[in-house]
Amino acid sequence: MATSDFWQKVSSSVSAPEWSAGTTAPGHQYAVGTSRLWMFLDVVTVLLAAILSTLFYFGIGPIAGVREFWHGTLIEGRSMGLLLALLGGFIVALLLISRQLHLYTPARLNGFLHEQRLTLQACFTAGLLLTGTIYVIQATNIPRSIVFITLGLVLVAQSIRRLTYRMLLYRRFEHGMGTRNVLIVGTGPEAHALRHHLESIRHLGYTFKGFIDLPNSRSRFATSSGDVVGNFGSLFECARQQFVDEIFFTLPCERGMVQEVLEKARANCIDLRVVPDMYDGLAWNSPIEYIGQFPTIPLHTGRVPEVELMFKRLLDIVFSAAALAMLSPILLAIAIAIKLGSKGPVFYASERIGKKARVFKCLKFRTMVQDAETRRAEVMHMNERDGVLFKISNDPRITKVGSLLRKYSLDELPQFFNVLKGDMSVVGPRPPIASEVREYKLSHLRRLDVTPGITGLWQVQGRQDPSFDSYVSLDMAYIENWSIWLDIKIILRTVAVVFSGTGT
Predict the structure, then answer these.
(1) Which helix or strand (DSSP H or E) is residue 448 part of?
(2) Across residues 111-136, what is the average pLDDT?
(3) Average pLDDT taken over every residue of the chain
(4) If you average pLDDT over residues 105-120, what whole number do you get?
(5) pLDDT in tens, 257-307
(6) What pLDDT is recorded for position 227?
(7) Contact, 270 vs 246, CB < 8 A?
(8) DSSP-derived secondary structure for 270-291
(9) Which of 212, 214, 218, 182 is nearest to 197 (CA)?
């Protein structure tokens, strides 16, 4: 059986129930919230362009122009209803055409020039429909200059907006942020070609994590490759350890095996794609999504709350910048007190494990003596936490100033710089140290699926509970029930906890 025929039958048999829920195949489904946001921005762009072009054409001020335009005095002989209907029709046409051209799909899946060409095509097509409608209804009193200026402004604004977003996205990818970790099932030439493709096109935002060897694989690449991280039986264990977001199949296998993988992928919220034979015929009705130049058939595509995450990041930036600005006198006073209180630097940079096991420097005010790390073995017997946690209430290494800072959690204020940098969030699980992560069970790695935070559910609800299980369960509850409103409630409760002085 040809490879493409196999995957076509697999996709039709195992995924048909999921696709029947809507009119669009899951390979073309993007996060619904993100698509709506881009559509909303397009609507706002058109409205602003129409207003600016009208004001520019008549050379009047904004307030007077809006008032006169609303009363219909700028364009004589035409009702406002007709003008608004034409504008509304143009907006609807632009949205439908942009959606048909997949301009609301992830930017990383298409190149910059391709996206700009599609933007030009969408604006040009919608503009032709608008001008054609004006010609048919003989709306001669509508100045053509306003129409063309509006179309020009919409095209320029959309192009600049998409370019800016893409540049910001690429910059995040360069710093290892927002990328998607992938495992490739198979070790044949197709698998190696896909790996080279993903690694050579950086704007795709993929990070290769390894190959998975198939049962009874006879590929000559299987033994020569040093990047085989597991076999088919340990696929999802490897996916958990590598914080994998997507799994790519490059070779056909038994349909029952694919069904089992698909069910586990859905349960573990991991996207699953297959790569059909590029040189064989593809059915017209197959849902194909291109990853660069590679055609893939998505069997499962999970929803990423990108709009909510964007607002979370915006909240982090605004809150952190405001906190650092308002607390700057206190930060300066603390720095002076630390310097006068004991020898050593003002700040302590600890290597912590962040989202998807990224290592970063977590900043804190120094609260211990300068040689605290070398004396850790001396106080290990005083540990008051169980499991992998380490905490001592009356740690002899803590300075007098440090004790006061810890009581009111003031030592963690410099972490707002980590938040601005993007390594941390205001709210999230606390970032662990490497020695703790080495002792994690597989299920505990779920804590590293999200960006760590300065405060979290454990800090406001179970701060004095020494149980590691309670620590993890509260973090899991936060991850499962996360929302912007939950972050706000945790921030408000954190303020109360800080003023109560229960820190240690």
Answers:
(1) none
(2) 87
(3) 76
(4) 77
(5) 777 888 888 888 888 888 765 434 333 445 566 666 666 767 666 666 766
(6) 81
(7) yes
(8) -EEEE---TTS---TTS--EEE
(9) 182
What's the angle, vertex CA 430, arms to CA 424 and CA 433, rounded to 5? 95
Report DSSP state, residue 398.
B
What would the two tokens of residue 296 be? 């893939």
Cα first-last separation, the chain:
66
pLDDT at 415: 93
Q: How far is CA 331 from the centre of its chain?
A: 32
Query: How far apart are alpha carbons 354 and 425 in whole angstroms?
Result: 10
> Average pLDDT of 129-146?
80
For the cut 90, the answer to whether the pLDDT of residue 174 exceeds it is no
Helices 32-58 + 80-100 axis angle, to 10: 140
Cα gap 3→90, rounded to integer Å: 44
Q: Hey, what are 462's tokens?
A: 């179970």
Burial class (CB in 10 A: 0-12, 13-18, 19+), 79: exposed
Provide the b/e sequence for 375-411 (b: ≥16 CB within 10 Å): eeeeeeeeeeeebbbbebeebebbbebbebbbeebbb
**Beta strands 294-300 and 228-231: pairing type?**
unpaired
Please give the share of the chain, as a percent, with pLDDT higher than 70: 70
Measured distance CA(27)–CA(296) in Å, rounded: 8
pTM of this prediction? 0.61
pLDDT tens column, 354-373: 988 888 999 999 888 776 66
Would you give the DSSP letter of residue 432?
A: P
Stretch (H or E) spanning 421: helix 415-421
Beta bridge partners of 184: 211, 248
Q: What angle do CA 287, 292, 293 make, to 5 degrees?
A: 75
Q: In three state form, how does the secondary structure of 302-361 look?
A: CCCCHHHHHHHHHHHHHHHHHHHHHCHHHHHHHHHHHHHHCCCCCEEEEEEECHHHCEEE
What pLDDT, in 10s, does the model give residues 195-245?
888 887 777 888 898 898 876 655 545 444 568 888 888 888 888 888 888
What pLDDT is recorded for position 336?
Answer: 92
The three-class DSSP label of residue 166 is helix
Token pair in block for residue 320: 């952190």
Where does the pLDDT of residue 80 fall: very low under 50, low under 70, confident under 90, or very high at 90 and above?
low
Give the pairing type, strands 359-365 and 347-353. Answer: antiparallel
Residue type, 210: G
Q: What's the one-letter identity of residue 6?
A: F
Give the model's pLDDT for residue 173.
Answer: 81
φ and ψ of 359, to 5 deg: -90, 135
Nearest to 241 by CA among 433, 440, 424, 387: 440
Whole-angstrom Cα distance, residue 215 to residue 261? 14
Q: What's residue 147's pLDDT?
A: 84
